[in-house]
Q: What sequence folds into this?
């Protein structure tokens, strides 16, 4: 019985082309890099001198030699938070929690990675922050750290960090001191002292307000006394008699029946007698 099945024969050289295609795909995938938003990249030349510090790659699609490696890092503004134990000016240990905003310099990303490594935050930024925080906090008392000096401390830490990182290809934008934790006994003592100071200020304010009110009343009374004295001195007997005569004339014009006695009374003023 004849075999009707047709034998499938793989084309000559087909395996070779498949191998070539796979190799091309692998080569292409290793030769292409996509750098995301807010990121930058530098080339590590495996067969060359290592990090290429002359060129930095920005966002988008890039083709690199398959034997090289693209190192991609964030170059937008970032932040890290930390808590550290530091000593105040009188040797008291306090815990300071804060956040720092920083940004690698894109054009110098190659120099940054070449000199400080890929983990440059741990190698460069953390030590600078710790040193600056210890130096600045060590200038202040616990009371100052706890209350009124927070913004000043932030600015001084920022200034010191920027000084340490000068020409290190890493820019620090802002420092925020979020919390200062003191031992409970010291914290309670400071809060009690602040409360007493506030109560004292309120008491002084009430005294000052009462004193001002008393002065106002005194001035008002003195003013009224002076006005009355002036008015009293201006009212002579002659003026009073003239005012009385004017009043009598007005009353005499009334339709009610009356008797006007001229020249009566101790002062010679007219006297009006009458009824409805």
A:
């Amino acid at each position: 019985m004849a075999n009707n099945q047709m034998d499938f024969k793989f084309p000559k050289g087909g395996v070779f082309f498949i191998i070539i295609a796979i190799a091309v795909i692998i080569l292409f995938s290793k030769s292409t890099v996509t750098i995301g938003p807010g990121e930058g990249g530098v080339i590590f030349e495996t067969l060359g001198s290592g990090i290429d510090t002359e060129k930095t790659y920005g966002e988008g699609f890039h083709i690199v030699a398959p034997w090289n490696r693209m190192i991609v890092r964030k170059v937008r503004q970032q932040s890290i938070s930390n808590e550290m134990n530091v000593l105040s000016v009188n040797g008291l240990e306090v815990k300071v929690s804060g956040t720092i905003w920083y940004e690698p310099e894109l054009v110098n990303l190659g120099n940054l990675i070449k000199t400080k490594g890929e983990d440059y935050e741990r190698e460069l930024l953390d030590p600078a922050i710790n040193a600056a925080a210890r130096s600045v906090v060590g200038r202040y008392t616990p009371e100052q750290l706890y209350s009124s000096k927070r913004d000043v401390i932030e600015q001084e830490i920022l200034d010191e960090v920027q000084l340490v990182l000068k020409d290190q290809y890493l820019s620090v934008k802002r420092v925020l001191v979020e919390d200062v934790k003191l031992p409970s006994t010291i914290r309670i003592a400071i809060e009690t002292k602040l409360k007493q100071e506030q109560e004292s200020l309120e008491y002084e304010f009430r005294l000052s307000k009462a004193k001002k009110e008393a002065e106002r009343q005194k001035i008002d009374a003195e003013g009224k006394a002076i006005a009355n004295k002036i008015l009293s001195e201006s009212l002579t007997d002659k003026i009073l008699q003239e005012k009385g005569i004017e009043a009598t004339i007005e009353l005499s014009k009334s339709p009610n029946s009356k008797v006007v006695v001229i020249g009566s009374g101790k002062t010679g003023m007219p006297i009006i007698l009458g009824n409805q």
